[in-house]
């Protein structure tokens, strides 16, 4: 930031920015809680329908690790 304005103005600006960002962070945390709850609901329903997400995640991890270490021409 340029050295414009008095020190008190600069302090006020930075304090205001931090207060705004703190409120934004609180709102983001609320959104994350809601998203997590929705994900858990869908996971529960999928389990009830017999979908094994853990097995699918392991399979996806295996496929990713198989691609590592290959030469670029083997991946194309």
Mean pLDDT across the residues is 88
Q: Determine the strand fraction and express it as a percent band.
A: under 5%
Helix amount: over 70%
**Number of separate strands:** 0
Task: Give the SSE order as H and E letters.
Answer: HHH
| Rg value | 24 Å
Break the fold down into its secondary structure elements and pairings.
Blueprint: H1 7-48, H2 53-67, H3 72-75
Description:
The protein has 76 residues and is mostly helical. The protein has one domain. It is built from 3 helices and no strands. The chain has helices at residues 7-48, 53-67, 72-75. It is elongated.
Using brief descriptors, characterize the structure shown:
mainly alpha, 3 helices, 76 residues
Summarize the structure.
With 76 residues, this protein is mainly alpha-helical. 80% of the residues lie in helices and 0% in strands. It contains 3 helices and no strands.
């Amino acid at each position: 930031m340029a050295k414009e304005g008095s020190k008190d103005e600069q302090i006020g600006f930075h304090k205001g920015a931090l207060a705004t960002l703190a409120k934004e962070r609180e709102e983001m945390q609320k959104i994350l809680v809601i998203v997590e709850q929705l994900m858990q609901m869908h996971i529960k329903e999928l389990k009830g329908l017999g979908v094994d997400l853990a097995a699918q995640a392991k399979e996806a991890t295996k496929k990713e690790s198989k691609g590592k270490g290959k030469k670029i021409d083997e991946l194309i």
